[in-house]
């Protein structure tokens, strides 16, 4: 049997260089609709040997989640009939949890020490709302694996209770991400409605509203109905919602627990207290339902298909109640039908990713972003949306896309704010004073290519070292370089440090770094190659940057001191690299 996701995954030639971790990255991109998987890989892949059963540790403090992944890829050419992934690989996540949460940092291998430090510090700072451990593989899901993952869930919960008592994590869960799950996630991008059954819902009334290529019915439905459909269809109801249901704990600060409490204690007020839900449907029809005179008259709404776009937490909280809620409670709903693929994506995007849209999309129409989009039309082999989202389909995304967030991070790093680049990418778009530092009238498309390609060149260096370390040992110098690059935020710090040495490379003053570029006819891919010799001759000095990323890149003062020390060493050794720097100077342009 051929799965839709498999065809899409096979077509992703950009993921091939990640080898056995390619499917884990693909799964993460499907689930969270991540625009730039390369920068995420540079930060989150462990690699380099002893990873303590953690292939990937992704910490998103802005979104409030941690994902830990163990990956397994079966050779289906040799064994096409293999029916389940090895359950011992799932149980390995117990080892991962123990090392991440319980072991002293000094005893952790270099490959995951920085990641573990960031995991713990973000939990202690109450920046994380949910933690998930995934076992990602390319085989059918199995009960044996699910049983092992239940034990992992207990291990993680116990570790959080004993080692991180004050963290306010709302939900800890495990997930087997095999063929069925991967296919559901992919099909949710292609056709977001996975639940295709017909439903009849009792309503007391409602109204229709329509746009150019969509129509919606707005009404109130019994919370008992939502409870029933969640019990039957569970997460498939959220095929168009990247977060799904996050669960609940008994905490006054937990929104989902509050939803449950209202449904049980004050069901008649639920409609007034809750924001309601938005759901995509294939069709809807209001039907008069004649009843006995004693019962009065009522109406029903017939719908075919449903996917909760916004309101997953409301639906999940109601659906996970121990008993069916009181029949007196109602929740407001917008049932939306639409056949235009582009509009469906916008409905999902603007309902389901409001925080992300607020961070960058509201900048997309300012004069600077409009001008940059026009300038990028003249840059070869480049796509730049300038704050606009590129859509959620990982298959259709342009391979030459410069993701808006990564561009913003590259600008921040190059212009000596690596801590902001790593920790506060949304603030670059959201906060006026930060945005105006990097996106100014002086910011040009050719300069963006210049800074973006430096970051990409640094990321490529890490991947090269990781891949080289797999078949055989690295040299002592290479091991030190990989050790540095495995630290959280290291690629942004190295980009800043190299940028700070620009006058050394060019042997001339650079009064305005925004005016520096490789010219207007150089693509990002070629620009990355221009940076490679510079990265190669400067990365041996990365030891000077180690203090700033010992735990994670979070101190401006430490970063500035480390960058200054790095620059001093580059300056003192420039006579050894005269030819390299002269060649670089010959391809760099500084606008007057």
Task: Please give a structural write-up.
With 592 residues, the protein is of the alpha+beta class. 47% of the residues lie in helices and 15% in strands. The chain has 25 helices and 13 strands. It has helices spanning 4-11, 22-32, 37-44, 87-101, 110-124, 143-163, 179-190, 223-233, 255-265, 270-273, 312-319, 341-352, 354-360, 367-376, 404-414, 418-423, 425-430, 432-438, 445-469, 476-485, 490-500, 502-506, 524-538, 556-572, 578-587, and strands at residues 56-60, 65-72, 130-137, 171-177, 195-203, 206-210, 214-222, 277-281, 283-289, 298-310, 330-338, 516-517, 589-590. Strands 5, 6, 7, 8, 9, 10 and 11 form a 7-stranded mixed beta sheet that branches. Strand 1 (56-60) and strand 2 form a beta hairpin. Helix 4 runs parallel beside helix 6 (143-163). The longest helix is centred in the last third of the chain and has 25 residues, at 445-469. The radius of gyration is 26 Å and the shape is globular. It starts with a helix and ends with a strand. Mean pLDDT is 88; it is low at 245-254, 292-297 and 354-358.
